[in-house]
Amino acid sequence: MPDPTIRINQPTAAIQHAFVAVMPRIVHHARICFRRMPCGDARENAVAETVALTWKWFVGLVQKGKHPESFVSVLAAYATRAVRSGRRLCGQERTNDALSPLAQARRGFTVSPFPEFSTLVGNTFGEALQDNSQTPIPDQVCFRVDFPAWLSTRTERDRLIIGELMVGERTLDVSHKYRVSQPRISQLRREYQEDWCAFCEPADLAVV
């Protein structure tokens, strides 16, 4: 058993060397724990905070004469739980901050940006902000009948792309998902819009 006093008096460089040797295990554990986080930047920040907290605890344990490298998996598990609960190296996240993931998780809400473009049926957020956001019942009935009928004229792949665009997915993301170029997605959006207008035009003329 090594003399604990030797570890207490270790220079910082020696402690850093010991930590770097086990850091890949900490990063691997954190990446697994945070793999379901939708935002890549937030996921990487969570991994970085896990490493930072583990380093802080690692140094403290060495200074107390412990051997944290022998139970680094336990340290990583505690660190990921702490980060998930809002713990950060420089303090705790505020639960009254709307942009804080901790506040969103505890209060059950999310924060999303406004779409940068309109979809085939308009911008959902834009419609919600209008003074009169309730669509007239006759228009609702027509849309619920006509839109599925129009979709049935498109291929399954077209229907999937249309669904992605309707919920506000970015052209870049859709192009990557369906392995086509970004300009092609923009072209398809225009084609879908023109085809939808042509599909509705006979009904409009009949009413007139």
Structural write-up:
The chain has 208 residues and is mainly α. The chain has two domains: 4-107; 124-207, Orthogonal Bundle (Arc Repressor Mutant, subunit A), CATH 1.10.10. Helix content is 65%, strand content 2%. The protein is built from ten helices and two strands. The chain has a two-stranded antiparallel sheet with strand order 1-2. A hairpin with a 2-residue loop joins β1 (87-88) and β2. The longest helix is centred in the last third of the chain and has 26 residues, at 182-207. The relative contact order is 0.07. The model is unreliable at 1-8 and 203-208 (pLDDT under 50).
For the largest sheet, list the strands in their spatial order.
Answer: 1-2
Counting DSSP E segments of at least 2 residues, the number of strands comes to: 2
Supply Rg.
27 Å
Class by alpha and beta content: mainly alpha
Helix content: 55-70%
Report the biggest beta sheet as strand number plus sense, adding barrel if it closes. Answer: 2 strands, antiparallel
Instruction: Give the mean pLDDT.
Output: 77
Low-confidence stretches: 1-8, 203-208
What fraction of residues sit in β-strands? under 5%
Q: What is the CA-CA span between the terminal residues?
A: 94 Å
Number of domains: 2
Summed up, the helix count is 10
Helices and strands, in order, run as HHHHEEHHHHHH
Q: Outline, from the CA principal axes?
A: elongated
